[in-house]
Write a structure and sequence with these properties.
The chain is α/β, with parallel strands linked by helices and 676 residues long. It folds into 2 domains: 224 residues, no CATH class; 310 residues, Alkaline Phosphatase, subunit A (3-Layer(aba) Sandwich). It is built from 27 helices and 21 strands. It binds (2R)-2,3-dihydroxypropyl phosphate and manganese (II) ion. (2R)-2,3-dihydroxypropyl phosphate (GP9) binds next to helix 16. The site of (2R)-2,3-dihydroxypropyl phosphate has 8 residues, from helix 16.
Length: 676
């Protein structure tokens, strides 16, 4: 044994590296280029520079996969390596593209959702395809060039004579395993747990590298399919325990206040709260929304909780008070489960439930998904005359006008209703500028000068400020969307549809705008037409937390009959809408994960990526760090871990309900038990 070990050490000592590389040119090129691409991807996405751990993981995996090349004859080795290279390159290209759009990484479980993204054709080509996403293609090209050079020099025949195939295979495989062992020895328990859960994908690529991440993702995605078959009992047990304590509904001044009234919900595409607070040259970006928010009940710290399913996730969470799945979109992959929704609970109270959206009914699988949410009728693109187009399709102004006519008819024929109108014009990439109408996002100033006739004249100077930025274009687009909302309110009023009706408006999610534009918005210096110096005492630092907090969206409840003039400042998520509305309209959800905000002074908003927010703390789950939002607030020791537990419990319960169809299955189990 001792001798064997000595021999082994001697072998390592005498190892002729030069000779080894010379006889493995193609393999070395493959390893090196794969590593460079893995690093490049991290540079371009998570800006993770030279961290050793993901490099170790990359080396280990590339060696392991590459080692099998030695089982092939030298002349066939190129074929094996080029196939693997193409796969590795595809992983990098797809993830780079995916990150540009979602700020996250691709997953096998998301294939169906990613195809939906391709459907947004226009915004993909204009917004997404960038040269940097295809830079990775150099790898297979280099491999092809080197291979043809080697062939010319009769390299492969020379190599065969010198090598021991089996030995090389085992040596490479063992090296890969050994490096993996070293790597895994440094993995912390948090990292293990996240690798197991697989939803914090940004974190995983940062720590494990893209190749190991993707391999783990493949196993996890297959595992999820298996789990649906096997993990049921455990999930059902957790579900029963979680809901065993009956939800207590405390009454408050809003209880049953709007019972029996019609409800019009406006799902306002990409409307972010920043737009409501913004003015240019004394003019509001969104004067109508601002007016409605002042007159109605305005929830000014409301956050969307979407995952990959964006618009559809918001529809899901708003309607069911459940969080979306973190792999895939409920609307696409899990629409055929049973959910408790606002629509269904109102139907029990005699409401007719209607949805309206002028896009293709297949988008986000709404044709099926809306039935599953409990809508009696879905009016989609084919029900509208496409007489004016902006961005993705029919303009909001035309959509609203036609929708009011339909709604009037519905009301006359079927009575009391719950109707959701999903707008479309304010969708990324906000570049239909000539259709939005005039709205300048510059700074205008009047200066008095003297002309050639010595007369005093007033001249207007313009400083470009937000002109020609994406955020500036967004404000122009919001200005149009807001004008359309103003027209909607008027048309509803003219049609007599505002009497005895409550209007509910929410921004469906943020508009994915670049951080650099927010830096300009807050720190513009008109004299230099540039950003203020960071040392300047008025400089606003747009860090991770500021950006995340700015992603909030408006939530407004408004009635023509009564002015509430109420602002609710407690932080709130999309999942709090159902219980809050339930209290006001007199329905009581059983499975809601959110809260009636009118009963709370503080709240926890759980985001799909594991981040959470209270009135005082924003917690960043990727970094396991947090920011205290009020300077005089002192964080209690247990608070972070308690809130982490609260959030992961809700993510887990929602995920299990969706995956295992627990509402349906557990209810039918109960019926069986009670019936027997
Ligand atoms: C598409 C519209 C936009 O019909 O609802 O969806 P999004 O891209 O925001 O998820
Ligand atoms: Mn949307």
């Amino acid at each position: 044994m001792k001798n064997k070990f000595k021999n082994f050490i001697n072998k390592i000592k005498n190892f002729n590296f030069k000779e080894y590389t010379k006889t493995n040119v193609l393999f070395f090129t493959f390893v090196l280029t794969s590593l460079i691409n893995g690093m490049l991807l991290r540079f371009l996405t998570v800006h993770n520079y030279f961290e050793i751990k993901p490099i170790l993981a990359d080396v280990a995996l590339v060696l392991l996969v590459g080692s099998f090349v030695y089982l092939f004859k030298p002349k066939n080795r190129f074929k094996y390596l080029i196939i693997i290279s193409v796969i590795f390159t595809a992983i990098c290209v797809i993830n780079s593209l995916y990150y540009t759009y979602y700020m996250s990484f691709a997953s096998f479980s998301l294939i169906a959702v990613s195809l939906q993204v391709v459907d947004v054709g226009d915004s993909i080509t204009k917004n997404l395809l960038q040269v940097k996403d295809f830079i990775f293609l150099w790898q297979p090209i280099i491999l092809i060039i080197i291979h043809s050079r080697l062939k010319i020099n009769d390299y492969y025949n020379t190599v065969t004579k010198k090598e021991n195939k089996r030995k090389r295979f085992i040596a490479t495989l063992v090296s890969g395993l050994a490096i993996y062992a070293i790597f895994f020895a440094t993995v912390t328990s948090t990292e293990y747990s996240r690798l197991n859960k697989q939803w914090n994908r940004e974190f995983l690529v940062t720590k494990f590298g893209v190749y190991t991440y993707q391999l783990n993702d493949l196993f996890k995605s297959l595992d999820a399919k298996f789990n649906t078959l096997f993990g049921y009992d455990n999930a059902a047990k957790e579900f029963r325990e979680f809901y065993s304590e009956k939800k207590e509904y405390k009454e408050n001044e809003w209880t049953n206040k709007f019972e029996g009234k019609n409800i019009i919900v406006l799902h306002a595409e990409s409307i972010q709260s920043v737009a409501l607070n913004q003015q240019f040259n004394g003019l509001d970006v969104a004067p109508n929304l601002k007016k409605l928010s002042k007159e109605g009940i305005y929830f000014s710290n409301y956050y969307s909780q979407t995952s990959a399913g964006t618009s559809s996730d918001t529809e899901f969470t708003f309607s069911s008070s459940l969080l979306p799945v973190t792999n895939g979109a409920v609307a696409v992959s899990y629409w055929n489960r049973e959910y408790e929704t606002i629509q269904k609970l109102l139907k029990e109270k005699g409401y007719r439930t209607i949805s309206m959206h002028a896009n293709n009914g297949e988008f986000w699988n709404r044709n099926n998904f809306h039935k599953s949410l409990g809508y009696d009728k879905f009016y989609s693109k084919s029900d509208y005359v496409i007489d004016e187009e902006i961005g993705l399709g029919l303009s909001d102004k035309s959509f609203f006008k036609q929708s009011v006519e339909k709604l009037k008819k519905e009301y006359e024929e079927n009575g009391k209703f719950y109707a959701t109108l999903i707008s479309l014009s304010n969708h990324t990439p906000f570049d239909d500028l000539d259709k939005y109408g005039e709205f300048d996002v510059d700074i205008k100033e009047e200066v008095k000068t003297v002309n050639e006739n010595n007369e005093e004249v007033t001249e207007t100077i313009s400083y470009p400020y937000m002109e020609d930025t994406q955020l500036g274009n967004y404000f122009k687009s919001v200005h149009y969307a807001d004008e359309a909302i103003g027209e909607l309110v008027n048309e509803l009023d003219l049609a007599g549809l505002l009497d005895n009706t409550i209007l509910v408006i929410y921004g469906d999610h943020d508009a994915k705008l670049p951080k650099k534009d927010f830096i300009r918005l807050y720190n513009y210096d008109k004299l230099t037409n540039d950003i203020k110096d960071e040392e300047d005492e008025t400089y606003v630092n747009v860090d991770y937390y500021k950006y995340e907090l700015d992603r909030k969206v408006p939530f407004i409840i408004w009635s023509k009959d009564e002015k509430f003039e109420t602002e609710v400042k407690t932080v709130m998520g999309m999942y709090d809408a159902m219980p809050t509305l339930g209290n006001m309209f007199g329905f009581k959800p059983v499975y809601a994960l959110g809260n009636d905000i009118m009963n709370l002074n503080d709240n926890i908003v759980t985001f799909a990526n594991g981040n959470w927010l209270t009135n005082n703390i924003y917690y960043n789950s990727q970094k396991d760090q947090y920011k205290v939002l009020n300077t005089d607030y002192i964080v209690n020791n247990d608070e972070i871990s308690k809130n982490n537990e609260y959030s992961s419990k809700r993510l887990e319960i929602a995920n299990d309900i969706i995956l295992y169809d627990l509402i349906k299955n557990e209810n039918s189990r109960l019926e069986r038990v009670e019936g027997s």
